[in-house]
Each structure stands twice: as structure tokens, then as C-alpha cells.
Design brief:
By secondary structure, the protein is α/β, with parallel strands linked by helices. The protein has one domain: 3-Layer(aba) Sandwich (Rossmann fold). About 45% of the residues lie in helices and about 15% in strands. It contains 10 helices and 8 strands. It has an 8-stranded mixed beta sheet, sandwiched between helices. The longest helix is centred in the middle third of the chain and has 22 residues.
């Protein structure tokens, strides 16, 4: 295992939910962490509690993405910021609802991939994009969410090919949580909607995924992946409470 101590890491969307779990795990391993988020109050609280640096901003702002990568020169970027999708059957959603995650998560992914390549990040750098298990099996109540999360997966593949063509030693990877996670905006919205559809409680629905994976446990898995040289070259990784980390390359 390689240490993360003193490595400069930027986590976009790290002030709550899964992103906060990642930040906590990285700080515990003595990484130098900068957190990008929208809420000044949450970021200030994180600065006081964990000693991270907070940056207030919009993850979909391409100028901000470029400026942060240029000025911080992070060794690792974790793009976690995600929009909870509108939850409703497909025949009731308008285009704005259906495309909401495309206009946030995929838009942000595009701009950060472009910034990583154009800056460019230093040789050996890694950029992690956060996808979803919905990218594999779909999610009929969340409109364009599943397709958007699969597009991020494709984008990592495209970016790896481009980096190779340009002679850049930058590696793009995809994190694929294989279960809904409570205590997160997206997880709570999805679990509540599907629990209602199946006429069970939210907790009963979450229990169908097996062992829980709270945000901090998820963060520990992400930190383990980053510290393990055997997982430095793959592209897509599943993360699950019961099974830990597994490769999805070829899925």
C-alpha cells in the first residue's frame, strides 16, 4: 500500500454525503485536502473540524475548474459533486427534469476532464469521476440519471485514450457505488422513492443491498483504492459494503 500522506488532493463536492466521507478518510491518512462546495457555512465548519481548505464555487464552472487545477496542482482529483435526480416515472417527467443530471454531473465531468488535460495535471496524477450502480442496471424512476452516470464512465475511457495520444501520464478512473447509501441526498431521494413504490420502509429497501456502506465507510474504500498500487491502472471500480472494491473493467 502506498501512503497518501502529504499528497495534495482536491475533492469537488466534499462538504456532505459520500464526498464528506471521502474527505474524512483522506484527512485521517494525512493528505492535504482542498474541498470545493457551494455552502460557505459547511465549508467553514469543515475547515475548523478537519483542517482542510475550503473553496466556495460551482463545480460546473469551467474557469474555476481550470484555475483550481492550475493553482493547486493536485496529485489526485475526486469529482464527487452530484445532483439528486428528480424521482418520478418517465411518462410524468418533462425534459428539464429528465436531463437535470446531464446538465450538472455530466457537464461538470466534461469541464474537469478538459481542465485536467489542458492544464495539464502533473505526470502520475489521477482523476476520479463518481458514477453509480444505475449505470449498469438502470434506474426507471430517475429519468436520465442512469444514462448520465454511464456517460461519465465513457468519458473516463475517452480521457484515458486522449491522455495516451497526447503523451500525458494522467489516469482517469470511475467510482461506481453498487448500493444506495443513506445520509446522502441522492441515496435518500432514491431509496425513499423506490421504497414507496414497493410499499416498504426506506430502511427495508436499503437493507436489500446487504451490509450498509455509510459515507465514511465509502470514503475508506476510496482511500484504499488510491493507496493500492494494484488499483492504480484500472478504469472502473465497484464499491460495496459487503464486497469492498472490485474491478468493473469490461462491464
Amino acid at each position: 500500500m502506498q501512503g497518501l500522506e502529504e499528497q495534495t488532493i482536491l475533492v469537488a463536492g466534499g462538504s456532505r454525503g459520500l464526498g464528506l466521507g471521502v474527505v474524512e478518510a483522506l484527512v485521517a491518512r494525512r493528505a492535504r485536502v482542498t474541498v470545493l462546495g457551494r455552502d460557505p457555512g459547511r465549508l467553514h465548519a469543515l475547515e475548523q473540524r478537519l483542517g482542510v481548505r475550503g473553496v466556495v464555487g460551482d463545480v460546473t464552472d469551467p474557469a474555476l475548474a481550470h484555475a483550481l487545477l492550475r493553482d493547486l496542482a493536485p496529485k489526485i482529483v475526486v469529482l464527487n459533486a452530484g445532483l439528486p435526480p428528480p424521482m418520478a416515472p418517465i411518462h410524468t417527467q418533462g425534459w428539464e427534469e429528465f436531463s437535470a443530471v446531464w446538465n450538472h454531473d455530466v457537464k461538470a465531468g466534461l469541464f474537469w476532464v478538459q481542465a485536467a488535460v489542458r492544464t495539464p495535471l502533473a505526470p502520475g496524477s489521477r482523476v476520479l469521476l463518481t458514477s453509480s450502480g444505475a449505470a449498469i442496471h438502470g434506474s426507471p424512476l430517475s429519468g436520465g440519471y442512469a444514462g448520465a452516470k454511464r456517460m461519465l464512465w465513457f468519458m473516463a475511457d475517452y480521457a484515458n485514450g486522449l491522455a495516451k495520444e497526447l503523451g500525458l501520464d494522467i489516469h482517469f478512473q470511475v467510482l461506481v457505488p453498487r448500493q444506495m447509501v443513506g445520509e446522502t441526498g441522492t441515496g435518500d431521494a432514491g431509496a425513499t422513492a423506490y421504497a414507496k413504490k414497493h410499499n416498504i420502509s426506506t430502511q427495508e429497501f436499503l437493507a436489500r443491498f446487504g451490509a450498509p456502506m455509510p459515507p465514511r465507510a465509502y470514503g475508506e474504500l476510496v482511500a484504499d483504492l488510491l493507496a493500492n498500487p494494484d488499483q492504480a491502472s484500472g478504469t472502473a471500480f465497484a464499491l460495496k459494503g459487503e464486497t469492498g472494491i472490485s474491478s468493473l473493467d469490461g462491464a
